[in-house]
Structure to design on (364 residues):
């Protein structure tokens, strides 16, 4: 069976705000989006802990402290769960969109100017059944005077965001329905997936990745001609949508149109080969399948593209360890150690190196 590629979270570009074309975006507006409404419990917390704080920057800092304080909110990341602001607050879990939605609802209630921001090249690949899920990232910005503060669940990450684009609430709502539709698709609930993905397109029919996911849905239902149309529409809306190109290439191949498939695959290969995280996450996929030698090949390619990412060295070290090659495992940990910034990560590296050193001594 040919593998499909499902884009599950978010992407796009540029840090400046660009309003979508009025002729493309749905006109339907509501005062406060359903998924953004703060609950009474959220309001009570903010009334008690934040609204009396003087100064917008101090309010911002206080909200972030509350969210990360395990005794108050204690948010836990879950990559494949998308919730409303209220659900995220109550469940204390969710993905980057869930967290960002909760934060923005809280910040706006406290009187801050908070906006959603799409982030590209913060990507992750993993396998879910017969689908490959490609996830990217969304976070938020808060404007205080002439300054802009970026608020991110993974703000301690050493990954660099390459491109940013502030988006309006319509696009954020389209992301929300795209996510829960994609999650339904992963569960095999095709009826719910069609409903939610359709709502995403209705809210913002310039949202390329909702068209991509709807194409995946149509392909899974055997409606190949319609799937081709949806993938083609996604590419027209965003020529950088390589997920749609991958899916479309697969359909062309299955239909015997090998030249069209070849051209699309060549475009994809040129772009993805430049991205170290593409190779890194292929390595993680192979590692999780216990294909440790294959994973090492991908990790080496990632390191070659960007030799200053400590997480690359941790993973390749682990792969060598699984193969019983303790010397190479130690070698790569020592290489990666010099790129570690935080004291916590340095301590983690030291413990790993000590463990490998003990194992090496036992072999003698």
């Amino acid at each position: 069976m040919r593998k499909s590629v499902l884009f599950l979270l978010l992407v796009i570009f540029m840090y400046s705000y660009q309003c979508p074309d009025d002729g493309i975006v749905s006109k339907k507006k509501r005062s406060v989006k359903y998924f953004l409404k703060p609950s009474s419990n959220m309001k009570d917390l903010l009334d008690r802990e934040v609204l009396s704080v003087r100064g917008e920057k101090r309010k911002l800092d206080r909200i972030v402290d509350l969210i990360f304080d395990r005794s108050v909110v204690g948010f836990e990341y879950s990559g494949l769960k998308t919730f409303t602001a209220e659900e995220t607050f109550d469940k204390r879990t969710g993905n980057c969109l869930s967290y960002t939605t909760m934060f923005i609802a809280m910040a706006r209630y406290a009187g801050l100017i908070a906006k959603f921001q799409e982030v590209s090249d913060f990507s992750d690949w993993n396998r879910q059944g017969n689908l490959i899920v490609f996830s990217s990232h969304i976070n938020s910005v808060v404007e205080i005077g002439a300054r802009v503060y970026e608020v991110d669940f993974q703000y301690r990450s050493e990954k660099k965001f390459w491109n940013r684009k502030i988006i309006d609430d319509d696009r954020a709502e389209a992301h929300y329905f795209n996510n829960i539709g994609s999650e339904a698709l992963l569960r095999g609930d095709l009826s719910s997936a069609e409903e939610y993905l359709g709502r995403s397109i209705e809210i913002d029919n310039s949202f390329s990745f909702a068209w991509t996911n709807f194409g995946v849905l149509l392909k899974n239902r055997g409606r190949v001609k319609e799937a081709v149309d949806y993938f083609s529409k996604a590419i027209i809306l965003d020529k950088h949508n390589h997920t749609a190109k991958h899916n479309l290439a697969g359909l062309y191949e299955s239909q015997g149109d090998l030249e069209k498939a070849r051209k699309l695959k060549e475009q994809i290969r040129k772009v993805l080969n430049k991205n170290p995280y593409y190779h890194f996450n292929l390595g993680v996929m192979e590692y999780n399948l216990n294909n440790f030698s294959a994973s090492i090949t991908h990790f080496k390619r990632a390191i070659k593209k960007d030799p200053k990412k400590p997480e690359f060295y941790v993973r390749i070290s682990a792969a060598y360890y699984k193969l019983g090659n303790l010397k190479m495992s130690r070698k790569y940990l020592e290489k990666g150690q010099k790129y570690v910034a935080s004291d916590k990560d340095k301590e983690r590296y030291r413990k790993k190196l000590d463990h490998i050193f003990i194992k090496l001594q036992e072999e003698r």
Summary: Strands lie at 4-7, 76-77, 93-94, 113-128, 131-144, 147-151, 163-167. The CA atoms of residues 39 and 86 lie 5 Å apart. The longest strand covers residues 113-128.
